[in-house]
Amino acid sequence: MLNDIKEVLYSEEQIQAKIQELGETIAKEYEGKNPLVICVLKGAFIFMADLVKRVNIPLEMDFMAVSSYGQSTKSSGVVKIIKDLDVTVEHRDVLIVEDIIDSGLTLSYLIDILKRRNASSVKIVTLFDKPARRTVDLTPDYYGFELPDSFVVGYGLDYAEKYRNLPFIGVLKEEVYSG
Ligand code: PRP
Ligand code: MN
Ligand code: MG
User: Fold this and answer.
1) Would you tell me which CATH number, out of the four given (3.30.559.30, 3.40.50.2020, 3.40.640.10, 3.40.50.720), belongs to the domain 21-150?
2) Which of 19, 72, 128, 146 is the most buried (most CB within 10 A)?
3) Helix, strand, coil proportions of the chain in percent (round to 5)?
4) CA of 158 to the centre of ligand 3 (A)
5) Is the ipTM value over 0.85, yes or no?
6) Is residue 42 reached through a cis peptide bond, with omega within 30 degrees of 0 on the bond before it?
7) Using one digit for the tens of pLDDT, what is the confidence trace for 67-95?
8) Which residue intervals define the domain Phosphoribosyltransferase in the entry (predicted)?
9) CA 77, CA 107: separation in Å to the nearest integer?
């Protein structure tokens, strides 16, 4: 698995240090608000687990799984809910946790849904951001690292469902996905 990685972009230590900072910032922002923290499966599950351990205030968690209808439809922003939330978001301060924002379509769709369900507020934290790839106007409220437009895997991010369990983020060797 490690042989498939061309270059490590951010190490496990760098990622964990950044998550500590993000957690402290978010804890200050949401103190006394009992936020509903929503993990977007699958990619965000590792970041979610590490982040909530650093947000030392009362909060609740829920999980959502979404999928695009394949490449062509993804560009039209059509996203399918595979697993919906268990709880209602009405009058809740919602924080969406993502691993990465690429085009921004997944999140703009989710934000739209949650606002229509009358959440009091909807904010976004993403560990990684690829602003160069954005096709919709969307800026995260909190983010960890900006990434170049390269094929990255690890720390929740997959290629064909693999590599999510790498504790760092790295660039995948071209031969892995072109061959
Ligand atoms: C990836 C990633 C984000 C989304 C970002 O998820 O985890 O959720 O794509 O892309 P966008 O900004 O262009 O919408 P993916 O659809 O691969 O599902 P996964 O999390 O299960 O891997
Ligand atoms: Mn995802
Ligand atoms: Mg994926």
Assistant:
1) 3.40.50.2020
2) 128
3) 30, 35, 35
4) 5
5) yes
6) yes
7) 876 555 455 667 889 999 999 999 999 99
8) 12-159
9) 10
